[in-house]
Write a structure and sequence with these properties.
This protein is of the alpha/beta class and 236 residues long. 47% of the residues lie in helices and 10% in strands.
């Protein structure tokens, strides 16, 4: 096994738009859901309103802040049950992801998922991809109070891994996700699966923005931390 006397000490992955290209299906489910409930929405603004967000945030935006917890749970199950049924035949990893996970796993790098999605969806996706053996733990939106861009989910994941956040690298596809990882003090790689590559490079604090996982290796991840160390401490 490769020595782990290097950084990153752990890699943490968002799910939607990172493990799988599920966001088009999430958009479709929201369009159908809002139409079924006769809730008006702007199709151009909808991606920014829902992608990377927890469902309860979106529910309050579209239905109003007066929604009870019981109503939100009922709406959430209605929304996500339809998603799982429709998405199941289309579940496949993003290009290059399986190879990177295998490389990190061989090196003994602890891996985790930190997703705003409900636990049922996270477990469904990870199992559908066959990736459960890779991940030491799955942290979901059910376990945190604050949605991204708040760093709570990344701080909780690092705590459960017993690894300092500053020693972790996170993989994200959304603006709020990148901000959450950076606010947690983590390195962050932005994957341009949902938003344009140039927007991620220019409008986020991602340490690296790439078109796909095919452009990322474990050596690249080590390089991010070495570069940060040189920037902080100067040349050796």
């Amino acid at each position: 096994m490769t020595s782990r006397n290097f950084l990153p000490a752990a890699a943490i992955f968002d799910m939607d738009g990172v493990l799988v290209d599920s966001n088009p299906f999430h958009l479709r489910k929201w369009v159908d859901f809002l139409n079924a409930h006769h809730i008006p929405f702007n199709a151009e603004e909808l991606p920014a309103q829902i992608l990377g967000q927890r469902n309860d945030t979106a529910f309050r935006f579209f239905f109003g802040p007066q929604l009870s917890e019981e109503e939100m749970l009922r709406l959430n199950e209605e929304l996500e049950e339809g998603f799982r049924k429709v998405f199941r035949p289309h579940a496949k990893p993003l290009p290059g992801l399986a190879a990177l996970l295998a490389e990190c796993h061989r090196a003994g790098l602890p891996l985790a998922v930190a997703s705003s999605a409900m636990a049922k969806n996270v477990e469904f996706i990870v199992d559908a991809l066959g990736f459960r053996p890779y991940f030491r733990l799955l942290v979901t939106g059910d376990e945190v109070k604050q949605p991204k861009p708040h760093p709570e989910i990344y701080l909780k994941t690092a705590e459960k891994l017993a690894i300092a956040p500053c020693a972790c690298v996170a993989f994200e596809d959304s603006f709020v996700g990148v901000e959450a990882a950076k606010r947690a003090g983590m390195g962050c790689v932005a994957i341009a699966s949902t938003f344009p590559l140039e927007d991620l490079r220019e409008q986020t604090r991602a340490d690296l923005a790439v078109r796909s996982f095919e452009e990322v290796t474990l050596a690249d991840l080590r390089g991010l931390f070495h570069a940060a160390k040189r920037t902080t401490h100067g040349p050796p």
